[in-house]
Automatic annotation (TrEMBL):
Pfam families: Response_reg. SUPFAM superfamilies: CheY-like. Residues 162-189 form a coiled coil. It comes from the Bacteria. It comes from Streptomyces nigra. Keywords: Coiled coil, Phosphoprotein. Residues 6-123 form the Response regulatory domain. The modification 4-aspartylphosphate is found at D55. InterPro entries: Bact_response_regulator (IPR050595), CheY-like_superfamily (IPR011006), Sig_transdc_resp-reg_receiver (IPR001789). The lineage of its organism: Bacteria, Bacillati, Actinomycetota, Actinomycetes, Kitasatosporales. This is Response regulator.
Length: 227
């Protein structure tokens, strides 16, 4: 059974949190409420989240300050943040949101369908990354011979697991490439393009790690270093 992704909703107004839950309930994921920046940071200490929807205007610790704390933590720095704001102070205010580490900056009132579509993309990427990490961990256990045969993999040799993982990664790479082309065609905003580029860099890193697990990769690297 596939575990649901968690989405963190941060807003000091209960009615806004209720509205967000109504919009995102169709995604059938786990929605976690936080009524302040401090409460959000506490939730991030124990749980992993696919994406954070963060209100800018909050008493005490505002959205910008909360985002700064999130980006300083190694555990949470890569979680996508979508800023939500009821006010618009112009380009400088928007730039401050992106500078704080947001992948998007949406002014209220926003189109519910657009917000749901944006969030669903990050949920899908999160789920695929989790799946790839699990497969990579399983593969390492098999190759190192230290963990025995994992559940569901009794009949698969390491080479077979490697091929399966490579095929799954290739599928994600293909989807990422299609997404990048779509962003180019639609003249998307800089935040969306930057997010796609970040995803491509992550996939490149995963591909390199996978290639390093190929039989003979270690010896080939050793020979290369000796020449």
């Amino acid at each position: 059974m596939v575990q649901k992704a968690k989405i963190l909703l941060v807003d000091d107004r209960p009615e806004n949190l209720l509205a967000l839950e109504a919009i995102l309930s169709a995604l059938d994921q786990t929605l976690v409420r936080a009524s302040s920046g401090e409460e959000a940071l506490k939730a991030l200490l124990t749980d992993d989240f696919a994406v954070i929807l963060l209100d800018v205007q909050m008493p005490g610790m505002d959205g910008f300050e909360t985002a700064a704390h999130i980006k300083r933590r190694e555990r949470t720095r890569d979680i996508p943040i979508i800023f939500l704001t009821a006010i618009n102070h112009g380009p400088h205010h928007t730039f401050r949101g992106y500078a704080a580490g947001a992948v998007d900056y949406i002014s209220k009132p926003f189109d519910p369908w657009v917000l749901r579509a944006k969030v669903s993309v990050f949920v899908e990427l999160y789920m695929k990354n989790c799946q790839l990490r699990e497969q990579a961990a399983l593969l390492r256990l098999q190759l190192e011979g230290g963990g025995g045969k994992a559940a569901g993999a009794e009949s698969k040799e390491p080479a077979g697991l490697l091929a399966e993982l490579s095929a799954r990664l290739a599928a994600v790479e293909e989807q990422a490439e299609a997404l990048s082309k779509q962003l180019d065609d639609d003249s998307a905003d800089a935040a969306a393009v930057a997010t796609a580029a970040h995803l491509e860099r992550k996939l490149t890193g995963l591909r390199r790690a996978l290639d390093a697990l190929e039989p003979g990769a270690g010896s080939a690297s050793s020979v290369s270093s000796q020449n």
